[in-house]
Fold each of these.
Amino acid sequence: MIIDDQHYDVIIVGTGAGGGTLAQKLAPTGQRILILERGGTMALEEQNRADVDVFKKERYHAPEQWYDQAGEPFSPQTNYAVGGNTKIYAASLMRMRDRDFTAVPHQEGIAPEWPFQYADLEPYYTAAEQLYQVHGDAQNDPTEPPRSSDYPYPAIAHEPLMQPLVEAITKQDLHPTSLPLSLTRQEDDPTGDSEVFGINLALKHHNVTLKTSAKVIGLHTNTAGTEIKGVQAEVGEQSFLFSADIVVLACGAVNSAALLLASANEQHPHGLANRSDQVGRNLMKQQLTVLVERFASENSGTFPRSVSVNDYYWGYGDYPYPMGHIENSGGLLQDVIFAESPPLLSVLAQILPGSRLKGLAIHSVGWWAQTGMLPDANNRVYWKKGKLRYEFEPNNFEAHDRLVYRWIEVLKAVEKDVKEAQSNTVFPRGEAPLQVVGYQSGTCRMGTDPATSVLNIHCRTHAIDNLYVVDSSFFPSCAAVGPALTVMANALRVGDHLIDRLKV
């Protein structure tokens, strides 16, 4: 093993929404920062692209296998590259609603309260929207939480195909809203991500070092088990040991927990920071269903997402529990989930050749229905005989089914009002399969009680003073909107804490 002769102030493991954002935040301080990224840079022609030609090629799947509760292997749809999963996400960046931070009753239980509230994170939401150049318009959303400022950029215009749909949805006393999107405004690569707005900005500072193809395999503590003294990584063909005053994990909810568990030692026999037995537990991700609406007219297949509907976010009619969030998928030929998983047209995709599948896609509009889940300690990741086990059973079915069926009724009404829509069609639906792990959260939950949580309010582990986690692992609950913007905002919040700590 090669011991690096440079001692850093901060080591950040991972470059996604949490790690990339934090690196950008800390870079101007002048502190010596080392960023370790398992992957390399992603080619422009591959990033944020999907088409029928990559279907079944698993371009966006990790080069490894995880194992489900039956012990069967699968390839997770996660991305190892500079920018992490933000290189293949849809760039829709929504704030959690203010009530999402409170104890929220659901039909199957209560989503726990967060140790801080929306008002505490709101300034950082605003800062994250500015950093990621979010384009949006919140005026028409009935669930939009209080804002200290408008979006920094105006919402993009709807695709001509979508405009009559928006008008038809509005006629049903609903409030379709422009979906907030991170955009670079660059023609060759329009989608904003944490490489563009995080890592690239951080690397403009000479005190920041990025090492790619650096897979962290272990964290080593002092003899008392109270501090991380070394970060072991495989860089190419060699093994290195790096040291820093502060170590921050941002590997994603599964891999951060897996690394903590794999780093067990005499002082932490069940994994680092795991005296509560909560590391790896409470794995959550949204229930995701895609509904495909057939059209008589043809579309490009590559237009961006632009529509959000939150009228059912907190329930509907006599159902007083949260149901969730609706957004359009954009053109089906650019949707990574379509190309990879795929729930979109999954049955047809298995039997149709690529040319016919493409023809079907350009006559379709997709809609995502998203519902939050409740934490469950039995949903977890852990190691068994050297294999990473991923045991997950979704919950909150009734709420999600109500959202899906309600949206089908909306689409049926839209068909009657929009001549371009094909009448009397069946709306194919597909559920996101197990390998879709992009929205995962909760495996190192944050809380005030070390007996029931892994991280404190600053996302520092209760047990190890210089170890932090800033990916979506920290989530105590899972809302209906995607976690990316909340991860970015929280990374900025934790960044302020670390800046104060580094001044001492």
Note: The radius of gyration is 22 Å.
Amino acid sequence: MGDLIMKRSAGVLLPIASLPSDYGIGTMGEQARKFIKFLKKAKQTYWQILPIGPTGYGDSPYQSFSTFAGNPYFIDLDDLKKEGLLKTNEYTSINWGKRKNRIDYEAIYQNRFKVLRKACNRISQKKLNEFNQFVMDEAYWLEDYALYMATKESLGGIALQEWPKNIRTRDDSTIQALRIDLKEEVLFWKKIQFLFYDQWHKLKNYAQDHGIYIIGDLPIYVSGDSADVWCHPKLFQLNKEYVPIEVAGCPPDGFSVDGQLWGNPLFDWEYLKKNKYEWWILRVKHQLRFYDILRIDHFRGFSSYYAIPFGNPTASDGRWCKGPGYDLFKAIKEKLGDVSIMAEDLGFLSEDVHELLNQTGYPGMKVLQFAFDSRETNSVYLPHTYNYNCVVYAGTHDNDTIQGWLKTANKQDVKRAKEYFHLTKEEGYHWGVIRAQYASVANLAITQFQDLLGLDSKARINIPSTLGNNWVYRCNKEDFRSDLAIRLGRLAEVYGRYIHGDERK
């Protein structure tokens, strides 16, 4: 598998949440399996997804309650019924949201866990034996996570920073009392993760059986409201009250006058170094159980990271601090060997970031939409500047769709793009850009599924630094069309991106 990422190939980006579903949100069930079949027919090698951890306020997959747990929303209800854990009328009669192509997180939050409780209560004796083994195997993260979620629920769902001090700072007697008082709820949250892990590994095996490999996404930071921060405070830059001193984000630039205020607590890299980066190595090792290739988000933050005083309303008043650099990735390699990692090396890149990328040897990212930004000169995103060791996108989940960008971008930028790629209405502008992706020398070309459909800005996944209309896009069951797969597969063949069965190993 380690050499596969170096082969000329292609894949499609579609979050689990964006899969079709009758129950409000995409899951690891039948529609996921149908999408895998679509990818195989389209002569693709990869399915790229977004982080799969449990989400909270804002519904962002980059703000998870745990870096180790899976999102309960992705557990497929029909598959639970097939196992005898649910009855049809227990979930089909629920209103999971009124809009077919939009995720209604409020409706899911209000109903999903009620249904999952019924499934958890019906776990058979045979399954209980498997569950007990799961609890033993995953104890290094599961015990903390389950207690965290049970505690959070008992406090009405409020964020960690608002918890009573004796709970927030993990007073020994308080934690012992919580383990006793919340015993049943802790068991429930463990069972949910058991169901998630069971379905995920079945899906991953199904994908591999069809010659499809999964590219996962690892955020550099964890949420301030998470089991990771609660149980491992020494890993982060926190004060005596366990409140962040500074938080993560990006400085102002041509795209954002105030910068981006993410709000995540920053790592205490000195402490991590003293402990030989054990937690980070464990994190990467754990993630590689889920994925074949790991995309690490905000790679430049390992070279130097932007620190914003906690409580600031914007990211404008921050400072750059030195990150762990190659020392971290050297430690990962020494412990885990040559793992398959991609680096999200977008944003403001200084020379030290380029040097770090070269040291690791990881492929970086090229985004075609960035190549035609009139605010930039001598763009490194123009295909004629690429080397082989990179991954090319028309746009990522943080960008507009191709059709959306063509409609809303600067007119001169769009004109340049049309001339550069020889875009025509006859071919379809979006197909012309996808053709350019495939024609480039980049080893790997990843296309958003919405772009295969030629959808406009309404199908955009995320607009950074905004709330209220992100992470909600869902495709339709009828979108996994045979003609679409055949057309994409033909591009893969023409441009040498189809890896035949024997070569995939």
Note: The radius of gyration is 23 Å.
Amino acid sequence: MYDALYDALYARQSIEKKDSISVESQLEYCRYETHGEACIEYTDRGFSGKDTNRPGFEKMMNDIRAGKIKRVIVYKLDRISRSILDFANMMEIFQKYHVEFVSSTEKFDTSTPIGRAMLNICIVFAQLERETIQKRVTDAYYARCKRGFYMGGRIPYGYRLTNTVIDNIRTSMYEEVPEESEQLKLIYSMYADTDNSLGDIVRYLNEHQIKNLRGANWNTARISEMLRNPVYVQADIDVYQFFQSQGANIYNPASDFTGYNACYLYKGTVSTSRKQSDLSDKEIVLAPHKGFIPSKTWLACRIRCLNNRQSTKTCKPKNSWLVGKVKCGKCGYALTIRKAKTKWGRYFVCSQSGSRGSNCTGAGCTVYADVLEEYMLGAIKDRLSEFQKLSCLSETGEEQKHMTKKIRLTQIEEEIEDLLSKVSGASSVLMKYIDEKVSELDADRKVLQEEIVTANVTDAEGRLKQITNHVKMWETLSFEDRQAVVDTLIKVIRIADGTIEITWNI
């Protein structure tokens, strides 16, 4: 124990603003309480009061435990803590080491029950104020995001900042840098061609001395990040439906996705994942700037990136490129790969067969992976041959009509969902109206779906030619590229009692 005990003066300022009291001013108030006695000053600049991870505060607490401090003096209660739990723990330590607490502007007598109660009440309101400010800042941030305002951060490769006005408010937006955007178009076109891997693209860029923003060489992580970023895409209804299928929250209506503007991707107010691969609860907002990557190219690359990440998680060398597509025809659960010490090596087995509480007896036969892969490759070749004489959409006018139909279909589905949400508690008159309106919309929906399916089949010729070429070079394809072909062509494969049922995407 030290012979001399000191007053501890503590001051904190999170952000220097005109309307906030400085650390120096806080200490001046605190010195008045010492009446000229010896004191030690502890300060934290640029630290929030939401927790106690502050160097000045931690040093003061260490000196308290060492027996150097008799009183802690602060300008105001919220300078030392804005958390009820942290404050309670702190006061417990103060009492243990017989340290008094003084607020120079809020006169508390911690030696009495009333004084301690008033102190606890004040800390409750301090925490409430902190949380209210935090929510207000967050709400303001996302309100600006949804209006398309530039929110700072690293400027993406391919763009520079330019001034603009949105809703009579000055802000900034991205402007295309031609020489960089041409490189990006090349990167996207290379990756859309499944013959090229991320490594192939990196090697090409580095060999041709094409530098990134920092003047450094490229790497696969940087390329992958760019391929997944919607800031480049000409966002049309296909992009809208992709984000919708991935669980993203889309601020703009489907009719705004005309193929002109690009998109901003934000984390969202409730999202816990920072990864672009997980789009659930992410916020999608149309950006004010023009995209320069066609939606078909961007989606091809984005879906390929998504498939790569999924296969990375699940696929090991012993796995098959059919994993994820093969289902048990009896229970509907996936067939998983197992390795055996036989000449066959690998075989599929129902994931539910033999498990507790399951009545599934499995596929009914041993499904060897090599045999099934050979069979499916033959089936894929036969399926592709059926589409060799199909013609594709060539007229721009027809493509525009096709896009308009997709937008209208999305709107109809949203209208039906909105009407059905009003069924609960509806009167008989309202129920009749809802029923009639839903029937009318459903009829329109079926007509549009048939027209879109027909157009999609016709439009698929170009993609099918590309896939056909990949199938011809099957032995040279990578594992991920084989999976990409299967994902494009096949929805599901069901096996039961020796029979194989294939549901095609085409």
Note: Residues 311-318, 389-395 have pLDDT under 50 and may be disordered.
Amino acid sequence: MLEKIDLSRTVEKEVYKKVLQEEGTKLGQLQRSLKEAGIPVLILFEGMGAAGKGTQINRLIQALDPRGFDVYASNQPTQEENLRPFLWKFWTLTPENGRIAIYDRSWYRKVLADRFDKETRKKELPEAFRDIRSFEKQLSDGGAVIIKLFLYISQEEQKKRFRKLEKSVETKWHVTEGDWEKNKRYDEYLQINEEMLERTDTEFAPWTIIEATDRNYAAMKILKTVTERLQQALAEKASLKAAEKVDSGIALDAGSRYQNGVLSGVDLSKALTKEEYKAKLDKLQKRLEILHSDIYRLRIPVVLGFEGWDAGGKGGAIKRLTSHMDPRGYQVCPTASPNDIERKHHYLWRFWNKVPKAGHVAIFDRTWYGRVMVERIEGFCSENDWKRAYQEINEMEAHMANSGAVVLKFWLHIDKDEQERRFKERMEIPEKQWKITDEDWRNREKWDQYEIAVNEMLVRTSTTYAPWIVVEGNSKYYARVKVLQTVVDALEKKISQVKAEQGRK
């Protein structure tokens, strides 16, 4: 593919200056329009070493209001980044609605430099490419514009630039042994880049090849590419807004096939006596205390999500789960309605910010599944949004699992009568009154709608790598023990797998 690119392309200085003036003015206007429309923009600069990424970024931003963009340089990942999934860093750096994020190298390092250096193993590549495509698709579907620029120069041109950089004390640090190794094995590294371009050139996030031998030509093409893509995005946004119709709630007929689904078959009579509960609880908590130390030493991240009916017992289950765990090694993340900052990002952004480091545990009291439950039923997002979310969520959880995480999701299930009994109990006991709100009673009136949504959620998002565990919750004793037992079993299994893998190395 790249061998067909004409690297001899140049532009006359006067032509370049004229285009720069015209397109620069246009870009400044587009930035203001993007802010008003609330469209986030990601501009990626990838390409061969010494192709001029820094220079071209500097030229591009001259036309922009500096208050509306951020530039991120991705060099060697930090220790903090190495302890998390490779996309974690970039999820946290996605721009707010209406802002522009510019990346000097990006998430493609995983399949480029790291692959060349053998840090990314061959067997990891399919998952890495899949994770990258799903990441970009999710952002695009969420309204973001993704502009990917690949700056291309020849082996000889690269060698010439390396030598020039090394001649100056101020610039020689730009050239590393790794850069020279890639130049020496240029064809091999070029092939890696070509495969990346072919596997990630999509309709929603296409690549543009920039002939970068002539810096003026490259700057002109970049500016034109960016302005054209942004104009297109604004036109599409206007068209979509005119046709957009937010769903006011769940249609029962549309989800009727889930009406008598998973929840209808749950045996809520399961229970434990107080004596059985105490004995099992003590044994499991002591075992979990040991396992918590093991996962820290083995650098195994754990993600536990808790959903369920109001008053279903999530808080009680989490309290018993964490009672013997080292508080330095876990975080409980309660999820409320998104705040003003969170609303300006993709709905998954706030959860990616809480993804645990390797060896740590993140416990979510309500989760990203609000998208397909409360947001669906209350009409806080469009029908297209919540229908698309099932796949987006599966992909997010797959990325966590691919990075070595244990991912478990618990639905704490009670019947309607038990919920009413717990609601009334909370109202009667002063120290529990804070737990009951008018919203809880309103949600109860939509029980049937929620049941359909939950059934669909369980069917469509329970996977081998991130299963749903329905917890019979009418008996709090039984529910707490089941949660603990499930976590203990999953950790023991994962620890055995990791130790076995380490033994084979």
Note: Confidence is low (pLDDT under 50) at residues 246-254.
